Amino acid sequence: MALDKIKEKKPLEDIKVLEFGSFIAGPFCSRLMADFGAEVIKVESPNNGDALRNWGSSKYKGESLWWPIQARNKKCITLNLKGNEGQEIAKKLVKEADIVIENFRPGTMEKWGLGYEDLKEINPSIIMVRISGFGQTGPYKDKAGFGSVGEAMGGLKHITGYPDRPPTRVGVSIGDSLTAMFGVIGALMALHHRDHSPDRQGQLVDTALYESVFAVMESSLTEYMKVGAIRERTGTILPGVAPSNNYPTKSGKWIVIGANADNIFKRLTKVMNMEELSEDERFSSHNARGKNQEVLDAIISDWTAQYELETLTQMLDDAGVPAGGIYNAEDIANDIHYQMRDMILQITDKKLGELHMPGIVPKLSETPGSVEWTGPELGEHNEEVYKGLLGYSEREYEELKAGGVI
């Protein structure tokens, strides 16, 4: 039984996180921590809360289907940070916290008396994760920046799409998500440092949207600085690497096949019953296939178009050729591997009923994360936090409500 209890313990369950965030990057950062047991207290405006409560391309009975996922496992309170009384309450919360996360425009927290220097005086052990478009320093620090701007200036948008068309977006707010993940990484490193320092000194974690995107741009900068090469949009291909592309199937779906290594290419030609291709001087080596990429892709496309996606996938799996369908949400929902890996969770929401949402990433063997509840109502945890954590009396609590402070 003791061992079972140890395994059920979550790695961050003794960490208290205070989130001053809205939309995607800041809230996603704290959500990742909440999934692994951190007590996340999300602070929202008493009037309308996080705008994400009403976001999403699809709604159910007028309700956002994004909010229940983004705010899962969090405790939501309301607090007016624009007034002195609200700011003083925020400082009391900071005294109880390990991590503060915010994604306002630089200078906003300072205007409220809640900048890092202010928080450090209140709680020297505090770790503050600041997420912004361009960081807390530099000539662009005061510029407004959304994820799309970060993706553009970080270099990702320039290489996304087809060479004969304008740059396009990735399809999700990848800049926000990347920055949130770097924020988590920074917070965990800062926690490790704090908890192994004799004075338990906290620190500032400064994460910028454009930098988070730039950090995953591989060797593109080095290539330019050393030889003057600028990566461009290449559509679905990886230039000089073949076969590695999207190929059509009989029913109109698409499959990705990556068989550019010599030994894997030979396996592919065997499945295709075209083993002579591996001996053809146009395709017999990596460099040759790269030079004749278009011809080779046309041959493979003619072959894949004869089969259904499921049949192709099984044939290629059996042969050890990396391949996979280009999934939409329906494909993901029906995929047995997603289901067996607990990547599709069924959770009950108080307003929306049964919801399916993405599972926990990553998988930890001894201290796995979980989803305990979906996104709360505005101010749902006010009583628990103000009367429980901060010790306000019933009279004081009612006065805060009446005065519009919470």
How does this model look, in words?
GO terms for molecular function: transferase activity. InterPro entries: CoA-transferase_III_domain (IPR050483), CoA-Trfase_fam_III (IPR003673), CoA-Trfase_III_dom3_sf (IPR044855), CoA-Trfase_III_dom_1_sf (IPR023606). Keywords: Transferase. This is CaiB/BaiF CoA transferase family protein. It is elongated and about 85 Å long. The protein is built from 18 helices and 13 strands. Residues 1-6 have low confidence and may be disordered. With 406 residues, it is α/β, with parallel strands linked by helices. A six-stranded parallel beta sheet has the order 5-2-1-6-7-8, with helices on both faces. It has a three-stranded antiparallel beta sheet with strand order 9-10-11, covered by helices on one side. Strands 3-4 form a two-stranded antiparallel ribbon.
Compact description:
The protein is α/β, with parallel strands linked by helices and 406 residues long. It is built from 18 helices and 13 strands.
Name a few traits of the molecule:
406 residues, alpha/beta, Rossmann fold, formyl-coa transferase, domain 3, six-stranded parallel β-sheet, three-stranded antiparallel β-sheet, 18 helices, elongated, disordered N terminus
